[in-house]
Specification:
With 243 residues, the chain is α+β, with helices and mostly antiparallel strands. The chain is built from 2 helices and 11 strands; from the N terminus they run H-H-E-E-E-E-E-E-E-E-E-E-E.
Length: 243
């Protein structure tokens, strides 16, 4: 019997309490490291998501919008009866002795009521109408709902709104414009409840002819770009509502 029992216990092996504790501690350490990595990743993702949301809100709050009509004022309108090179401003274009110039081109014909296309506008016997030159474009700017203040200072060289002009002839950046503060506290910031009238002078390379599409880009220092695209009507008047 002793011999049998000794055979049963001869090769018996087991795990001590110390080894069990070491294994348990190793599992706890690995789980802790994994939990720390997961928690850190989650916190980082949440922080980046918060930054993205705030950046989007800042961009939206910095947006501008047009209030009211966009108008274009033109000069030099009216059919010229006599295109002689005299000392009178016959066609009301602000120039004299220009032979009824169309867009600055000297008119050769002495009398525009003939069967010759004197002003090269593909029409005859039309009284040499002077092309209406768009002198300025006006529109009102305001902040978007609950928007942040936006600097609109034509004289500023940094951190202010600039205006670009695009049409079929050219694209001109940072063109000249003026500001009339219709509603405001006198500073150069458009704030909630304020209204600025913007007058844009088209570049000299652009004529803005009839049926021509042009775009004015209002680019604030922060926020989205406001693109104002309009089409000139088939006939120009002294003042055209482009809405």
């Amino acid at each position: 019997m002793k011999k049998l029992l000794s055979k049963l216990h001869k090769k018996e092996e087991g795990i001590t309490g110390l080894e069990t504790a070491i294994i348990l501690i190793a599992f706890v350490i690995v789980a802790s490291v994994f939990a720390f990595v997961v928690l850190s990743t989650g916190l980082f993702s949440a922080d980046r998501g918060k930054e993205t949301v705030f950046a989007g809100l800042d961009k939206a709050r910095g947006n501008l919008e047009v209030r009211g009509a966009v108008t274009a004022a033109s000069v030099g309108i009216g059919a010229e009866t006599i295109c002689g090179a005299d000392a009178a401003d016959d066609d009301g274009d602000g120039r004299v002795n220009d032979g009824c110039a169309a867009n600055g081109a000297v008119e050769a014909g002495a009398n525009c009521l003939n069967a010759t296309d004197d002003d090269a506008d593909t029409e005859i016997n039309d009284g040499c109408p002077t092309y209406a030159l768009v002198q300025d474009i006006k529109f009102n700017l305001a902040t978007a709902a609950a928007g942040a203040p936006v600097s609109v200072d034509p004289a500023a060289t940094t951190n202010s709104t600039i205006i670009n002009y695009v049409d079929a002839q050219d694209r001109v950046g940072d063109i000249t414009f003026t500001v009339v503060k219709i509603l405001g506290d006198g500073d150069d910031l458009i704030e909630v409840g304020e209204l600025f009238e913007i007058t844009v002078d088209p570049p000299g390379t652009s004529t803005i002819d009839e049926n021509e599409v042009f775009t004015i880009e209002v680019v604030p220092p922060s926020g989205g770009t406001l693109a104002i695209s309009r089409t000139m009507p088939p006939q120009k008047d002294a003042l055209v509502n482009l809405n």
